[in-house]
Amino acid sequence: MDKWLWAARFFKTRGLASEAIQGGRVKVNGVRAKPAKEVRAGDRVEVRVGELTWIVLVEGVREQRGSAAQAALLYTETPESREQRELFLAQRRLAPAPGTDGRGRPTKRDRRRIESLRHRDRG
Questions:
Q1: What residues contact 37, with CB distance under 8 A and at least 6 apart?
Q2: CA–CA separation, 21 vs 112, rounded Å?
Q3: Domain limits of the chain?
């Protein structure tokens, strides 16, 4: 399983793939997988990478990592998975960046208030 995830380019290293499997972020045919699990053509694999979830059908198995074009031939993503993933990415693109409230830098008045709070906490 870890070799297949690595060869299919879901993870950069086999170690990361193995950690994801042991962490319960990979399921094969609806069942939590183990790193040594053999993957066969036709298996349904659910992989959570960060905030994204991929649901793919295994088309082929390779022992070695190849190019991205070769990796794409190892699986087919389900239409529901692709739709959910694209929707999530579109929502994330439209969301404001974390920590920005749109007000910009503090004004001179705001800075004075911040400074007064800092000095009050010290004394």
A1: 1, 21, 28
A2: 52
A3: 1-84
Distance between CA atoms of 61 and 34, rounded to whole angstroms?
Answer: 17
Q: With DSSP H G I counted as helix, E B as strand and the rest as coil, what are the percentages for the chain, rounded to 5?
A: 40, 15, 40
For residue 96, name the pLDDT band (cuts at 50, 70, 90): confident
CATH of 1-84, one of 3.30.390.30, 3.40.50.970, 3.10.290.10, 3.40.50.300: 3.10.290.10
Tens of pLDDT, residue by residue over 41-81, are 999 999 999 889 999 999 999 888 999 999 999 999 999 99
Q: What DSSP string runs through 43-69?
A: -EEEEEETTEEEEEEE----SS---HH
